[in-house]
Specification:
Layout: H1 2-6, H2 12-45, H3 50-94, H4 98-103, H5 106-148, H6 150-197, H7 199-204, H8 208-262, H9 266-278, H10 280-307, E1 335-345, E2 348-358, E3 363-367, H11 374-381, E4 389-394, E5 397-398, H12 404-408, E6 411-414, H13 425-429, H14 438-447, H15 451-456, H16 474-487, E7 492-496, H17 504-517, E8 522-526, H18 530-533, E9 538-543, E10 546-551, H19 553-559, H20 561-569
Parallel strand pairs: 3-8, 3-9, 6-7, 7-8
Antiparallel strand pairs: 1-2, 1-4, 4-5, 9-10
């Protein structure tokens, strides 16, 4: 309860006002049976009762108005609380540490923003105030019933206590079942997102039935948990109803006999019966609120767990365009790694003492067999992870001395997945620089060889390219990602397999683009196709997490067995002679 109450911080004034209005409405409702008693007694003695009837109508109308206003305030407060939670969850998820992000399924995280917060909204907008007002109204009704007839009140109390005992025994089961159901719903969302995200693969391999069966198991699990919750709630509701109805019948029978035999007041009996019936609503709201709070606690736990996940510090506002930061130390390389070690899990190192540098306005290529640690190096440069040992330097300054925003403002990344989001082609190109001018966008479109794509699409740059860029080919998505990276004007451009989706013609064109890029920024490129990087200013050979050689293409063919094997597998010949240092063993980047 205390945890749920803390959710209303910042909305307390509205909650208090809504509670007061609800209590006022309830008080007006409590006054109605008492006034009806007076009207009946006066009518039975021949006294005037029209004034009482008019006052009764006014009380009824006042109860309706105050109740409606109070309910609206509560609903608005609930929406405000959930709005804040959703903003917090979205902000947290978008800044999750990469280690943490890979431990969770995105569909389950999405479910916490949608399904869990929706359930929690009902608790905030209804259950908390219903519990408070229900208890107070029930206490008032019971006090007035005791004033009218203590004996009949005793009968009602015994039946209500019996129902309360049954309800209490069911609450723990309802909460546990609710937690299981929310978890199963999150698993459904995660598995469905998994299948839809790879729908072409699913269909080509005729795996629709298998994926449907996998998701169906999650749905069945949610169904079983939901049925368990419903079964417990189904037992709880009749217990409350039977207690209320049973007490009402007892009052009616015993009270009627007393009026008949003892000459008790008929008005008292009617007022007591009205209070007994009036007691149904607050008691039902109390028991319903308790059950809803138990279910909401499961959603609250999942939300709090998500909000507690470790996240990166908040990023600064987007940088202007172009934004090429100046190198902070004279003649220092744009990027340098010094004796960098890293492991995703203890005891399983991925990088073992990597050292190399990327000078300004030069192209450096990373090559090596799969699993050598090339993509991991990119993750460290982008500061998705921090090295276990060693130092990453930007412009001669250790990354640890810079904020994440300062580091990332120096780089742009084009990875092999070539992420494209739903929206227009212009939106995707200008994603990292939303304030870019048309001239700047046209320039990067030309650099990335996207002119033909712009002409082909209906609407050109304003064309909507669909979910995950479904209207574009793999090579076109790669070029869109390249244009997006170039538009930010980075000091260092990271290219991860930029030719993985390109044909020979476009690969040759991109090779020309890479040469042009060196005039604007430094380039660090991962390539399996050595033909793309054989003219690079320097090639770094990475094997089993270690730099085994550096140099130019023709020098590495002579000095590096690993590079020679890679080149032989692609049937590459020595490039034309070029000036530059001979291939060497790994060296400290400070000497570069």
């Amino acid at each position: 309860m205390a945890a749920l109450y803390r959710l209303t911080a910042g909305h307390r004034d509205a909650v208090v006002l809504a509670t007061v209005l609800t209590l006022v409405g309830s008080a007006l409702g409590l006054a109605q049976p008492w006034l009806a008693r007076e009207v009946i007694d006066r009518g039975g003695t021949g006294g005037p009762y029209w004034t009482g009837l008019l006052l009764l109508a006014a009380l009824f109308l006042g109860e309706a108005v105050t109740g409606a206003v109070g309910r609206f305030l509560l609903e608005r407060t609930g929406e405000g609380v959930i709005r804040g939670l959703r903003h917090g969850l979205v902000g947290r998820f978008l800044r999750l540490e990469m280690r943490e992000f890979h431990r969770h399924r995105s569909g389950d995280l999405t479910s916490r923003v949608t399904a869990d917060t929706t359930l929690l909204r009902e608790v905030v907008s209804q259950a908390l105030v219903d519990l408070l007002t229900g208890v107070l109204v029930a206490a008032g009704a019971i006090a007035l019933m005791g004033w009218i007839d203590p004996l009949l009140l005793l009968l009602v109390t015994l039946t209500v206590l019996l129902a309360a005992g049954v309800v209490t025994s069911l609450l723990r089961g309802i909460r546990a079942a609710s937690v299981q159901m929310q978890g199963a719903v999150g698993a459904v969302a995660a598995d469905l997102e998994r299948a839809l995200g790879a729908l072409p693969m699913v269909r080509v391999h005729q795996a629709e039935e298998r994926e449907a069966a996998r998701i169906g198991e999650r749905i069945d699990s949610a169904y079983r948990s939901g049925v368990r919750t419903a079964r417990l709630a189904a037992v709880m509701s009749p217990a409350v109803e039977l207690a209320v109805q049973g007490s009402f019948l007892l009052v009616l029978v015993i009270g009627g006999l007393r009026v008949h035999s003892d000459g008790a007041s008929l008005g008292d009996l009617v007022a007591f019966l009205l209070y007994a019936s009036y007691l149904v609503l607050p008691l039902s709201s109390v028991f319903r609120a308790i059950g809803l709070i138990q279910r909401g606690m499961g959603a609250h736990e999942r939300i709090q767990q998500a909000l507690a996940l470790p996240a990166e510090p908040a990023s600064p506002p987007a940088r202007p365009v172009p934004a090429v930061p100046a190198v902070t130390a004279r003649d220092a390389p744009v990027l340098a790694l010094r004796d960098v070690h890293f492991a995703y899990r203890p005891g399983l190192p991925v990088l073992r003492g990597v050292s190399f540098a990327v000078p300004d306005h030069q192209q450096v290529a990373l090559v090596g067999p799969s699993g050598a640690g090339k993509s991991t190096l990119f993750s460290l440069v982008a500061r998705f992870y921090e090295p276990d040992e060693g130092t990453v330097l930007f412009g001669g300054r250790p990354a640890a001395e810079l904020t994440l925003g300062e580091c990332r403002s120096r780089i742009a990344v084009v990875d092999q997945n070539a992420h494209v989001v739903h929206g227009t082609l212009r939106d995707n190109i200008a994603y990292g620089a939303p304030g870019a001018s048309d001239a700047e966008i046209r320039r990067v479109v030309e650099l990335a060889r996207l002119e033909e794509v712009v002409r082909r699409l209906d609407g050109g740059l304003s064309a909507v390219i669909g979910e995950r860029g479904g209207t574009l080919s793999g090579g076109e998505r790669q070029r869109v990602a390249l244009a997006r990276a170039l538009l930010t004007g980075p000091a260092l451009l990271l290219l991860d397999e930029p030719t993985s989706h390109l044909d020979a013609v476009n690969e040759a064109a991109l090779t020309g683009v890479l040469k042009d890029l060196a005039a604007e920024c430094a380039v660090l490129v991962i390539a399996h196709r050595l033909s793309t990087v054989q003219h690079a200013d320097r090639i770094v050979v990475l094997e089993q997490g270690r730099v085994t050689a550096t140099g130019r293409h023709e020098d590495l063919l002579l000095a590096s067995p690993t590079y020679r094997r890679l080149a032989a597998g692609q049937m590459l010949r020595p490039a034309a002679p070029a000036e530059g240092p001979r291939a060497t063993e790994p060296q400290d980047p400070s000497f570069d």
